[in-house]
Specification:
It is a single chain. This protein has a single domain, classed as ADP-ribosylation fold (Alpha-Beta Barrel), CATH 3.20.170. It is 27% helix and 20% strand. It contains seven helices and eleven strands. The protein has helices at 2-24, 85-89, 117-123, 167-173, 183-191, 197-201, 206-210; strands at residues 31-33, 38-40, 50-55, 79-81, 100-104, 110-114, 127-133, 138-139, 150-152, 160-164, 177-180.
Protein backbone atom coordinates (compact mmCIF):
# COMPACT_ATOMS: atom_id res chain seq x y z
CA UNK A 1 0.00 0.00 0.00
CA UNK A 2 2.83 2.38 0.94
CA UNK A 3 4.62 1.52 -2.30
CA UNK A 4 1.56 2.53 -4.38
CA UNK A 5 1.24 5.71 -2.33
CA UNK A 6 4.89 6.61 -2.92
CA UNK A 7 4.58 6.01 -6.67
CA UNK A 8 1.44 8.17 -6.79
CA UNK A 9 3.23 11.00 -4.97
CA UNK A 10 6.18 10.70 -7.36
CA UNK A 11 3.91 10.91 -10.43
CA UNK A 12 2.02 13.85 -8.93
CA UNK A 13 5.27 15.68 -8.13
CA UNK A 14 6.53 15.13 -11.68
CA UNK A 15 3.25 16.40 -13.17
CA UNK A 16 3.28 19.49 -10.95
CA UNK A 17 6.91 20.13 -11.91
CA UNK A 18 6.07 20.00 -15.62
CA UNK A 19 3.08 22.28 -15.09
CA UNK A 20 5.22 24.80 -13.21
CA UNK A 21 7.86 24.73 -15.97
CA UNK A 22 5.34 25.47 -18.74
CA UNK A 23 3.72 28.22 -16.66
CA UNK A 24 7.14 29.80 -16.18
CA UNK A 25 8.30 29.38 -19.82
CA UNK A 26 6.49 32.46 -21.26
CA UNK A 27 8.41 34.69 -18.83
CA UNK A 28 11.83 33.33 -19.81
CA UNK A 29 13.95 35.22 -22.41
CA UNK A 30 14.33 33.79 -25.90
CA UNK A 31 16.76 30.90 -25.68
CA UNK A 32 18.96 29.62 -28.45
CA UNK A 33 21.11 26.52 -28.16
CA UNK A 34 23.98 26.85 -30.70
CA UNK A 35 24.40 23.96 -33.13
CA UNK A 36 21.27 22.24 -31.73
CA UNK A 37 18.86 24.26 -33.90
CA UNK A 38 16.47 24.99 -31.06
CA UNK A 39 14.81 28.38 -30.68
CA UNK A 40 12.02 28.66 -28.18
CA UNK A 41 10.06 30.92 -25.92
CA UNK A 42 6.55 29.51 -25.89
CA UNK A 43 7.25 26.67 -28.30
CA UNK A 44 10.02 24.86 -30.09
CA UNK A 45 11.16 25.44 -33.65
CA UNK A 46 11.32 22.13 -35.48
CA UNK A 47 14.44 21.53 -37.55
CA UNK A 48 13.65 20.82 -41.24
CA UNK A 49 14.62 17.33 -42.42
CA UNK A 50 15.55 18.56 -45.90
CA UNK A 51 17.27 21.80 -46.88
CA UNK A 52 17.96 23.31 -50.31
CA UNK A 53 21.12 24.77 -51.82
CA UNK A 54 21.21 26.26 -55.32
CA UNK A 55 24.12 26.76 -57.69
CA UNK A 56 24.83 27.61 -61.30
CA UNK A 57 26.98 24.46 -61.27
CA UNK A 58 24.84 21.45 -62.21
CA UNK A 59 27.46 18.83 -61.39
CA UNK A 60 28.30 19.17 -57.70
CA UNK A 61 28.96 15.81 -56.02
CA UNK A 62 30.05 17.16 -52.64
CA UNK A 63 29.32 20.59 -51.17
CA UNK A 64 32.20 22.00 -49.18
CA UNK A 65 32.26 25.05 -46.85
CA UNK A 66 33.44 28.26 -48.50
CA UNK A 67 34.05 31.77 -47.25
CA UNK A 68 32.30 33.55 -50.11
CA UNK A 69 29.73 35.44 -48.06
CA UNK A 70 30.44 36.58 -44.50
CA UNK A 71 27.64 37.13 -41.98
CA UNK A 72 30.12 37.85 -39.18
CA UNK A 73 33.89 38.10 -38.74
CA UNK A 74 34.18 34.93 -36.71
CA UNK A 75 31.86 32.57 -38.63
CA UNK A 76 34.39 31.31 -41.16
CA UNK A 77 33.69 29.03 -44.12
CA UNK A 78 30.15 27.58 -44.34
CA UNK A 79 27.63 26.02 -46.72
CA UNK A 80 24.42 28.04 -47.06
CA UNK A 81 21.01 26.41 -47.37
CA UNK A 82 17.35 27.18 -46.77
CA UNK A 83 14.12 25.23 -46.07
CA UNK A 84 12.41 27.30 -48.81
CA UNK A 85 12.97 25.96 -52.32
CA UNK A 86 11.77 29.26 -53.82
CA UNK A 87 14.34 31.24 -51.86
CA UNK A 88 17.01 28.75 -52.91
CA UNK A 89 16.12 29.14 -56.60
CA UNK A 90 17.24 32.79 -56.53
CA UNK A 91 20.84 31.68 -56.00
CA UNK A 92 21.11 29.66 -59.20
CA UNK A 93 22.12 32.94 -60.80
CA UNK A 94 25.41 34.69 -60.01
CA UNK A 95 24.48 38.11 -58.68
CA UNK A 96 25.40 40.49 -55.91
CA UNK A 97 24.04 43.49 -53.98
CA UNK A 98 25.36 45.96 -56.54
CA UNK A 99 22.62 45.12 -59.06
CA UNK A 100 20.14 42.80 -57.33
CA UNK A 101 18.22 42.69 -54.05
CA UNK A 102 16.33 39.72 -52.60
CA UNK A 103 14.33 39.00 -49.48
CA UNK A 104 10.79 38.47 -48.22
CA UNK A 105 7.93 40.71 -47.08
CA UNK A 106 5.14 39.90 -44.61
CA UNK A 107 6.39 36.33 -44.10
CA UNK A 108 5.08 35.71 -47.59
CA UNK A 109 6.69 34.90 -50.91
CA UNK A 110 10.29 35.80 -51.66
CA UNK A 111 11.26 38.43 -54.20
CA UNK A 112 14.16 39.38 -56.45
CA UNK A 113 14.67 42.94 -57.68
CA UNK A 114 17.12 43.43 -60.53
CA UNK A 115 18.24 46.69 -62.17
CA UNK A 116 19.72 45.08 -65.29
CA UNK A 117 17.22 42.84 -67.07
CA UNK A 118 19.34 42.45 -70.22
CA UNK A 119 22.34 41.23 -68.21
CA UNK A 120 20.21 38.84 -66.15
CA UNK A 121 18.56 37.29 -69.23
CA UNK A 122 21.89 37.06 -71.10
CA UNK A 123 23.58 35.21 -68.22
CA UNK A 124 20.57 33.02 -67.39
CA UNK A 125 21.39 29.47 -68.36
CA UNK A 126 19.82 27.87 -65.30
CA UNK A 127 21.46 25.72 -62.67
CA UNK A 128 20.56 23.13 -60.07
CA UNK A 129 18.88 23.00 -56.67
CA UNK A 130 20.42 20.40 -54.39
CA UNK A 131 18.41 18.63 -51.68
CA UNK A 132 20.52 18.20 -48.54
CA UNK A 133 20.17 16.28 -45.28
CA UNK A 134 19.90 18.79 -42.43
CA UNK A 135 21.91 16.81 -39.85
CA UNK A 136 24.94 19.11 -39.58
CA UNK A 137 23.18 22.39 -40.36
CA UNK A 138 22.29 25.06 -37.81
CA UNK A 139 20.49 28.40 -37.93
CA UNK A 140 21.11 31.63 -36.05
CA UNK A 141 18.14 33.96 -35.61
CA UNK A 142 20.54 36.91 -35.17
CA UNK A 143 22.31 36.48 -38.51
CA UNK A 144 21.33 36.77 -42.15
CA UNK A 145 17.78 35.61 -42.90
CA UNK A 146 17.30 34.02 -39.47
CA UNK A 147 15.57 30.66 -39.60
CA UNK A 148 15.23 30.94 -43.38
CA UNK A 149 19.01 30.55 -43.63
CA UNK A 150 20.87 27.46 -42.37
CA UNK A 151 24.61 26.83 -42.51
CA UNK A 152 27.03 23.93 -42.10
CA UNK A 153 30.73 23.96 -41.32
CA UNK A 154 31.03 20.37 -42.58
CA UNK A 155 31.04 19.03 -46.14
CA UNK A 156 27.66 17.66 -47.27
CA UNK A 157 26.78 15.14 -49.96
CA UNK A 158 23.51 16.04 -51.75
CA UNK A 159 20.66 13.55 -51.61
CA UNK A 160 19.18 14.65 -54.91
CA UNK A 161 19.30 17.50 -57.41
CA UNK A 162 16.77 19.32 -59.58
CA UNK A 163 18.12 20.83 -62.82
CA UNK A 164 16.68 23.91 -64.55
CA UNK A 165 17.40 25.52 -67.92
CA UNK A 166 16.36 28.96 -66.69
CA UNK A 167 16.72 30.57 -63.26
CA UNK A 168 14.00 33.10 -64.08
CA UNK A 169 11.49 30.41 -65.03
CA UNK A 170 12.39 28.35 -61.95
CA UNK A 171 11.99 31.33 -59.61
CA UNK A 172 8.57 32.23 -60.95
CA UNK A 173 7.42 28.60 -60.89
CA UNK A 174 8.23 28.52 -57.14
CA UNK A 175 6.36 31.77 -56.51
CA UNK A 176 9.35 34.13 -56.27
CA UNK A 177 8.21 37.59 -57.37
CA UNK A 178 10.67 39.04 -59.89
CA UNK A 179 10.91 42.78 -60.56
CA UNK A 180 13.09 44.29 -63.28
CA UNK A 181 13.57 48.00 -62.59
CA UNK A 182 15.77 50.87 -63.75
CA UNK A 183 18.79 52.10 -61.79
CA UNK A 184 16.94 55.07 -60.23
CA UNK A 185 14.15 52.95 -58.74
CA UNK A 186 16.64 50.29 -57.64
CA UNK A 187 18.67 52.88 -55.71
CA UNK A 188 15.49 54.24 -54.09
CA UNK A 189 14.49 50.75 -52.96
CA UNK A 190 17.97 50.15 -51.50
CA UNK A 191 17.80 53.44 -49.54
CA UNK A 192 14.23 53.18 -48.24
CA UNK A 193 13.73 52.43 -44.53
CA UNK A 194 10.90 50.02 -45.38
CA UNK A 195 13.22 48.16 -47.83
CA UNK A 196 11.21 49.55 -50.74
CA UNK A 197 7.88 48.00 -49.77
CA UNK A 198 5.76 50.99 -50.86
CA UNK A 199 7.66 51.32 -54.11
CA UNK A 200 7.34 47.62 -54.92
CA UNK A 201 3.59 47.75 -54.29
CA UNK A 202 3.29 50.07 -57.30
CA UNK A 203 5.45 47.94 -59.58
CA UNK A 204 4.31 45.19 -61.93
CA UNK A 205 6.27 41.98 -61.45
CA UNK A 206 7.43 39.71 -64.23
CA UNK A 207 5.04 37.17 -62.70
CA UNK A 208 2.07 39.46 -63.34
CA UNK A 209 3.23 40.23 -66.87
CA UNK A 210 3.46 36.52 -67.68
CA UNK A 211 0.64 35.41 -65.36
CA UNK A 212 2.90 32.97 -63.48
CA UNK A 213 2.12 32.79 -59.75
CA UNK A 214 1.62 36.54 -59.22
CA UNK A 215 1.45 37.51 -55.53
CA UNK A 216 1.23 41.32 -55.14
CA UNK A 217 2.04 42.78 -51.73
CA UNK A 218 -0.88 43.35 -49.39
CA UNK A 219 -1.89 47.02 -49.08
CA UNK A 220 -2.46 47.64 -45.37
CA UNK A 221 -3.26 51.32 -45.89
CA UNK A 222 -6.67 50.42 -47.39
CA UNK A 223 -7.73 48.98 -44.05
CA UNK A 224 -6.54 51.73 -41.70
CA UNK A 225 -9.28 53.14 -39.51
Amino acid sequence: MNKIKNISLLVLSFALGCLFFYLLLPFLPLKYEPRKNIFYKNDTFIKPRILFHASKDKNIKLLEPREIKRRSKDEGAVIFSTPHIGFASIFMSRHDDRWTKSGSFDSGSFYLICKDKDRFIKEDDGGAIYCLPSDCFYADCCKGMGISEWVSKEAVKPLHKLEFDSTLDAMMSFGVQVYFVDEKIFDQIKRDKDHGRKIIMNLKSENEKRDINPMPLFDYSKYKK
